[in-house]
């Protein structure tokens, strides 16, 4: 309650401050000394801070804040401080192209991160490509995202890698033979659906039904009647955390007790919060897991929790990871636009919270072989899945 | 328990009724407001969201007992409703009828953005304190919350009925709904009536937000828009301003959606709902539960577009501005500025198109982004799949958008006023949903990648200057054409339709012919605009031209002045420019945008340059 | 029921041998439980001026709506110039030469006075609206001709403008100085004048005037009377709804009295004025003798009923 009051006050104060600032032209930019070796190295971020996707931008922001703090505490990059210039795009294509022009013309910016949706990110790609500024789409899984050219890179989970892993979990580990699929009907969900169906078939299972739903859907009861009537023995979700939680709640209410396997994007404390008791027993795979004993993961988790007071989720961990990766590349190759492009092609085994280590396939400009961990929701928390362990959902089946 | 062949349909029916039950909560409030003030209140969804957050504070932060929380939500949202009436409706009484509608859009931006800043954009859980027992029906089950929602829906409708029938204030509300002027002359305090209605409807809206939040165990600052849209659709199906009709319409909408899912699949849900809406609007323009046909009463004073005196820019000034705009890239080399203005020119094409149908002909379209989408997809697919050169594909896309757009809106030609707006909104949604679902043609959710850029002799025109110049030149040509059109006999004919379609018909103006002409011209202009965007963006999908783009276009048109060609361009420059100008304000910029919008509507409701 | 009824009709018609320009037979229109027009028959010969009078709610305006195609009758037929036009759309009837004004005035508020009158001439546009008879090409040709007007189109527009200015000059300097003013800025009386000018621009064969002098003061009413008299003098056929009996008595060849949707009397003005049934229905207990004063309208309640 107190924090709400405090934020109300901040809101009023902020609005006033902004309105005053608007009268005073651009914020101070050239006030710092003109010593080029001390000037900050700036990475532009184009992402949604307002609008329908604002929650994801806020998660990015938390990841970036932590990464910046750590990079600059350890001396920055090549003796210069690292900075992020986060421009709110609302994931609106007409704004991302304007932001792209802005970044491209700003010689201090050495690389760009984002945007969130494919429509917004890929509209700006030609501008980055033509200007020779790396666009690093760390959540852009669209199969054609990097195809615009050699300056467009992504370390987003490659569905061609992720879906077989998920299918493996559902079919080989949990023994599903007739799987019903619910997928969010966007480029990511649609691509994943095809890849999952293929992978499941290869493993001897059949996808008996696939229901694509719209992004802002909240009611799945009737979709679940269709799912039920396909008589599945397992249910797979290609969902984000909010819709994934919603579907799980409603399918349990509808009396469907089959094991549920969900794509790694449900990995978020919000999935547990919004899903409540219903998501108990849901399986997922994730490259990043706070319980992972690797030291970089443990450092990240404890620092993140200390800074923000909440557990990290998939998007903030990816944002953190992306910025650290770029910092690594800049340290190795120098704060130059082209050098960063070349550096991404050659960087080997860069440390990564999400992937362990990262290397890129220079041809596809995507990450080579990410790994993943099998998780299950247990006692209201994500836990490592033990084969053969008592599985509430499975037992009920 | 039930035979299997019958089982699923029973389940679909139950599920349809359950979700319809939820739509009804919002539809009742919207119907009440429309009944009295003839306003489609787009802020209603935001009130619903505020109710959910007040409830969240009460339940999770203050640990209030549930009845106290409900009371707090009702009071808080009731007050908010009174404020909305005071800010959004009352000062605009003599403004164009569309101005209050726009004010409610502005208010909804302000409310949603404030909530986002106060509570963060993350969704939050809203645990229910109700018992968790469930009654199995068929293959599914309903719980305590379903019954509570139904109870609140029916109970509030019953209470409203009693209030309207048996209290003095209720009598005043009904009198105002029938004839505002007459009621005022009989001594009814119309302001008080409006305030009361807004307060009651908003209290109900807030309680709905809390209930639905508990139902899904999720609340977020953006939850209102989609919910409000469904409420509007539901009450239109039942007949606007008709409270029992709104409940019936909601249940029907729930059933339509549920059967749509059963027959075609989950991603056809909204497509089915919007097609049903169009069919109902066309077959029963006053809703399913309206009374028999009757001529609208003759207007005593005023018409849909309030009188205004447009600001006429002198010819030399326009010439000077055009020359300055064309020469700008020689003086300023900032690609960011050029891109932003280039975007403004592209959106000015959309605004130009909309100002013709919404301003000149008075057919306020809320689905204009659909024309952009048709143009964009047509041009992209012609260039990629049919191998047609881009320079030819763009005008062809204009023709396709003109033909397809006009054909899609044609059934709505017989509608008037707000019904046209809702029908076009539905058409816009249908376009998006068809793009999403017609995979073999449009590539579905994957979108169209690698759309080739505009190019001349193999040289792609992608630099900042071309992104500025190409849309500017196209815009100047179309603005010139439109100005010419407005000064011909078509100008007065189209405006006559807007001013009084009955009188226009009586003088031999065939409404379908001229509405069709206007939509064809508008479709061509918007289609070319969309096509240019596709070639600049290189990638388009169903989310490239979402519903808020239509709202933005309408805001541009009203801001500039309805029907005003220069106004449309000015509106586009201001509304594309403002968010960029406020960029330094980061998360606060949309809030500022909302406030600026409200101030503009408040102090210049006829638009900056005035209605032509 | 009536005395001065149908028998007197033929004698008062100037050219009885010719088929009537307008003939209405057994018209019925119901709104829910209310019968607004109840089996009404009426005919109008070329050049005749017939007035329809009756108390508020008698169904006069509904009758106009039925004749002009804004509403369709439940029973009965309307024939215009020998053609059965029952159920024709308003725009089609306008094309046949039917023009009307509206009870409360329906000018196009944001259009200038001149443009208002020019809309009246819409059906007479020929050069810019070539009668191709094809569903798509016609409108497209019109669009093209409007955007790139050839000489014929420009000449037509000029001619209509000149003509409109001439019509407007009929009203003296009431409207001429306000040619470019938006109609909403005009006085109530001037808006009525604009409506009549707009109707005249159609070059109607039949003109229907719905209370042309409502809201006018005695001087203005007298002026309007002269204008209508002038129109009649030029041979225009007019159907008039009017409450000011003095004006009705002076102008009409024939008067039809309506009450509760039905005709209760018809005949020469003098005959109708003394018909006891009319006095009973229309004027209550007031004597008709006062009708030759300008304030005769004062007898009639000014607040209009909604169902009218």
UniProtKB/TrEMBL annotation, chain A:
Pfam families: Peripla_BP_6 (PF13458). Residues 1-30 form the signal peptide. It comes from the Bacteria. InterPro entries: BCAA_transport, Leu-bd, Leu_Ile_Val-bd, Peripla_BP_I. SUPFAM superfamilies: Periplasmic binding protein-like I. Residues 40-372 form the Leucine-binding protein domain. Keywords: Amino-acid transport, Signal, Transport. PANTHER family: LEUCINE-SPECIFIC-BINDING PROTEIN (PTHR30483), PERIPLASMIC BINDING PROTEIN OF ABC TRANSPORTER FOR NATURAL AMINO ACIDS (PTHR30483:SF6). Belongs to the leucine-binding protein family. This is ABC transporter substrate-binding protein. The lineage of its organism: Bacteria, Pseudomonadati, Pseudomonadota, Alphaproteobacteria, Rhodospirillales.
Automatic annotation (TrEMBL), chain B:
CDD domains: TM_PBP1_LivH_like, TM_PBP1_LivM_like. InterPro entries: ABC_transp_permease, LivM-like. Its main location: membrane. One of its GO terms (molecular function) is branched-chain amino acid transmembrane transporter activity. Keywords: Cell membrane, Membrane, Transmembrane, Transmembrane helix. The keyword rRNA-binding does not apply. One of its GO terms (cellular component) is plasma membrane. It holds the Pfam family BPD_transp_2. The keyword Cell membrane applies. The chain crosses the membrane at residues 12-34, 65-84, 135-164, 197-216, 236-256, 268-290, 310-332, 344-366, 386-410, 417-438, 466-486, 517-540, 552-578, 590-609. It is a multi-pass membrane protein. It is found in: Cell membrane. It comes from the Bacteria. This is ABC transporter permease.
TrEMBL record, chain C:
SMART domains: AAA (SM00382). Keywords: ATP-binding, Nucleotide-binding, Transport. Pfam families: ABC_tran, BCA_ABC_TP_C. One of its GO terms (biological process) is L-alanine transport. GO terms for cellular component: plasma membrane. Transmembrane segments: none annotated. CDD domains: ABC_Mj1267_LivG_branched. The keyword ATP-binding applies. The keyword Nucleotide-binding applies. InterPro entries: AAA+_ATPase, ABC_AA/LPS_Transport, ABC_transporter-like_ATP-bd, BCA_ABC_TP_C, P-loop_NTPase. Residues 22-285 form the ABC transporter domain. It comes from the Bacteria. GO terms for molecular function: ATP binding; ATP hydrolysis activity; L-isoleucine transmembrane transporter activity; L-phenylalanine transmembrane transporter activity; L-valine transmembrane transporter activity. This is ABC transporter ATP-binding protein. It comes from Azospirillum griseum. The lineage of its organism: Bacteria, Pseudomonadati, Pseudomonadota, Alphaproteobacteria, Rhodospirillales.
């Amino acid at each position: 309650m107190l924090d709400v009051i405090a934020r109300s006050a901040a809101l009023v104060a902020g609005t006033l401050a902004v309105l005053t600032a608007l009268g005073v032209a651009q914020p101070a930019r050239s006030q710092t000394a003109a010593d080029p070796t001390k000037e900050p190295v700036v990475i532009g971020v184009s992402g949604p801070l307002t609008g329908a996707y604002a929650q994801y931008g806020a998660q990015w922001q938390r990841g970036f804040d932590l990464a910046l703090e750590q990079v600059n505490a350890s001396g920055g990059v090549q003796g210069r401080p690292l900075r992020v210039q986060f421009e709110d795009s609302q994931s609106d294509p007409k704004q991302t192209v304007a932001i792209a022009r802005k970044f491209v013309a700003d010689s201090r910016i050495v690389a760009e991160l984002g945007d969130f949706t494919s429509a917004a990110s890929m509209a700006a790609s030609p501008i980055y490509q033509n200007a020779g500024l790396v666009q690093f789409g760390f959540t852009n899984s669209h199969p054609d995202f990097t195809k615009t050219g050699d300056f467009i890179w992504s370390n987003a989970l490659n569905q061609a890698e992720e879906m077989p892993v998920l299918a493996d979990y559902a079919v080989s580990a949990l023994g599903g033979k007739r799987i019903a699929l619910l997928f969010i009907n966007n480029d990511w969900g649609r691509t994943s659906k095809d890849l999952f169906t293929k992978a499941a078939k290869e493993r001897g299972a059949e996808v008996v039904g696939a229901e694509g739903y719209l992004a802002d859907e909240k009611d799945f009861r009737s979709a679940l009647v269709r799912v039920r009537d396909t008589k599945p023995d397992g249910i797979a979700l290609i969902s984000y955390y909010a819709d994934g939680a919603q579907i799980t709640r409603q399918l349990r209410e509808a009396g469907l007790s089959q094991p549920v396997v969900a794509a790694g994007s449900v990995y978020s404390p919000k999935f547990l919060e919004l899903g409540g008791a219903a998501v108990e027993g849901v399986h997922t795979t994730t490259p990043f897991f706070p319980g992972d004993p690797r030291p970089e993961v443990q450092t990240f988790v404890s620092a993140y929790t200390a800074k923000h007071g909440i557990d990290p989720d998939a998007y903030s961990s990816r944002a953190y990871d992306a910025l650290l990766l770029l910092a690594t590349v800049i340290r190795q190759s120098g704060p130059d636009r082209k050098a960063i492009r070349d550096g991404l092609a050659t960087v080997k085994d860069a440390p990564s919270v999400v992937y362990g280590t990262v290397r890129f396939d220079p041809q596809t400009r995507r990450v080579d072989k990410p790994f993943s961990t099998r998780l299950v929701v247990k006692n209201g928390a994500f836990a490592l899945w033990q084969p053969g362990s008592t599985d509430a959902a499975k037992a009920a089946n | 328990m039930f035979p299997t062949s019958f089982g699923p349909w029973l389940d679909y029916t139950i599920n349809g009724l359950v979700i319809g039950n939820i739509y009804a909560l919002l539809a009742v409030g919207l119907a009440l407001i429309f009944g009295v003030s003839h306003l489609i209140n787009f802020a209603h969804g935001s009130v619903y969201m505020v109710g959910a957050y007040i409830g969240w504070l009460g339940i999770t932060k203050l640990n209030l007992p549930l009845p106290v929380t409900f009371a707090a939500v009702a009071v808080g949202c009731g007050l908010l409703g009174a404020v909305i009436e005071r800010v959004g409706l009352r000062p605009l009484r003599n403004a164009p009828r569309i101005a209050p509608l726009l004010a409610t859009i502005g208010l909804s931006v302000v409310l949603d953005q404030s909530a986002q800043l106060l509570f963060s954009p993350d969704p939050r859980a809203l645990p229910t304190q109700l018992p968790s027992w469930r009654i199995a029906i068929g293959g599914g089950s309903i719980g305590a919350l379903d019954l509570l929602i139904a109870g609140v829906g029916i109970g509030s409708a019953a209470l409203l009925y009693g209030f309207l029938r048996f209290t003095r204030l209720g009598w005043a509300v009904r009198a105002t709904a029938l004839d505002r002027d007459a009621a005022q002359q009989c001594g009814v305090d119309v302001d008080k009536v409006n305030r009361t209605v807004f307060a009651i409807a908003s209290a109900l809206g807030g309680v709905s937000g809390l209930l639905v939040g508990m139902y899904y165990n999720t609340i977020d600052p953006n939850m209102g828009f989609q919910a409000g849209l469904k409420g509007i659709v539901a009450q239109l199906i039942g007949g606007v301003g008709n409270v029992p009709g709104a409940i019936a319409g909601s249940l029907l909408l729930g059933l339509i959606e549920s059967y749509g899912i059963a027959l075609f699949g989950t991603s056809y849900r909204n497509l089915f709902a919007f097609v049903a809406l169009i069919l109902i609007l066309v077959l029963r323009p006053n809703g399913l539960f309206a009374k028999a046909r009757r001529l609208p009463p003759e207007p005593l004073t005023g018409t849909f577009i309030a009188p205004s005196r447009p600001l006429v820019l002198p010819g030399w000034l326009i010439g000077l501005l055009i020359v300055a705009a064309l020469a700008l890239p020689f003086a300023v080399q900032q690609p960011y500025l050029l891109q932003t203005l280039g975007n403004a020119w592209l959106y000015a094409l959309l605004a130009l198109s909309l100002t013709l149908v919404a301003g000149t002909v008075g057919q306020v379209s809320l689905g204009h982004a659909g024309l952009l989408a048709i143009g964009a997809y047509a041009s992209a697919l012609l260039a990629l799949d049919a191998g047609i050169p881009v320079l030819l594909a763009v005008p062809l896309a204009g023709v396709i958008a003109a033909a397809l757009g006009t054909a899609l809106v044609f059934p709505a030609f017989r509608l008037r006023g707000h019904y046209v707006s809702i029908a076009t909104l539905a058409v816009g949604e249908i376009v998006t949903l068809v793009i999403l679902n017609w995979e073999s043609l449009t590539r579905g959710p994957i979108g169209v990648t690698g759309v080739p850029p505009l190019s001349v002799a193999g040289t792609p025109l992608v630099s900042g200057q071309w992104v500025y110049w190409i849309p500017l030149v196209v815009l100047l040509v179309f603005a010139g054409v439109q100005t010419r059109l407005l000064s011909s006999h078509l100008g007065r004919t189209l405006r006559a339709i807007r001013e009084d379609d009955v009188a226009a018909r009586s003088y031999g103006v065939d409404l379908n012919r001229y509405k069709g002409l206007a939509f064809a011209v508008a479709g061509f202009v918007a289609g070319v605009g969309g096509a240019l965007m596709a070639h600049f963006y290189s990638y388009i999908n169903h989310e490239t031209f979402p519903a808020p783009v239509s709202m933005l276009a309408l805001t541009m048109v009203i801001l500039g002045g309805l029907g005003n060609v220069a106004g449309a361009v000015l509106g586009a420059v201001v509304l594309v420019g403002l968010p960029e100008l406020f960029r330094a304000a980061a998360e606060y910029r949309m809030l500022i945008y909302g406030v600026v919008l409200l101030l503009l509507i408040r102090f210049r409701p006829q638009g900056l340059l005035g209605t032509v | 029921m009536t005395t001065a009824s149908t028998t007197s009709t033929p004698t008062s018609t100037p050219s009885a041998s010719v088929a009537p320009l307008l003939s209405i037979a057994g018209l019925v229109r119901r709104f829910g439980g209310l019968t607004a027009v109840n089996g009404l028959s009426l005919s109008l010969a070329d050049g005749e001026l017939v007035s329809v009078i009756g108390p508020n709610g008698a169904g006069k305006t509904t009758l106009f709506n039925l004749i002009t195609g804004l509403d369709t009758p439940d029973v009965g037929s309307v024939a215009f110039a020998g053609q059965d036009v029952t159920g024709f759309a308003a725009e089609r009837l306008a094309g046949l030469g039917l023009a009307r004004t509206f009870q409360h005035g329906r000018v196009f508020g944001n259009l200038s006075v001149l443009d208002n009158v020019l809309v009246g001439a819409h059906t007479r546009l020929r050069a810019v609206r070539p009668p191709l008879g094809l569903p798509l090409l016609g409108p497209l040709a019109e669009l093209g001709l409007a955007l790139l007007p050839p000489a014929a189109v420009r000449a037509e527009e000029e001619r209509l403008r000149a003509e409109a200015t001439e019509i407007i000059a009929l009203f003296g300097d009431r409207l001429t100085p306000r040619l470019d003013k938006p109609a909403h800025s005009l006085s109530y009386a001037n808006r009525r004048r604009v409506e009549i000018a707009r109707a005249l621009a159609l070059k109607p064969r039949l003109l229907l005037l719905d209370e042309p002098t409502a809201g006018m003061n005695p001087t203005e009413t007298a002026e309007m009377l002269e204008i209508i008299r002038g129109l009649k003098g030029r041979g225009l056929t007019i159907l008039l709804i009017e409450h000011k009996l003095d004006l009705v008595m002076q102008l009409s060849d024939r008067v039809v009295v309506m009450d509760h949707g039905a005709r209760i009397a018809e005949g020469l003005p003098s005959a109708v004025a003394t018909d006891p049934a009319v006095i009973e229905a229309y004027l209550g207990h007031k004597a008709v003798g006062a009708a030759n004063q300008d304030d005769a309208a004062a007898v009639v309640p000014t607040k209009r009923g909604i169902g009218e």
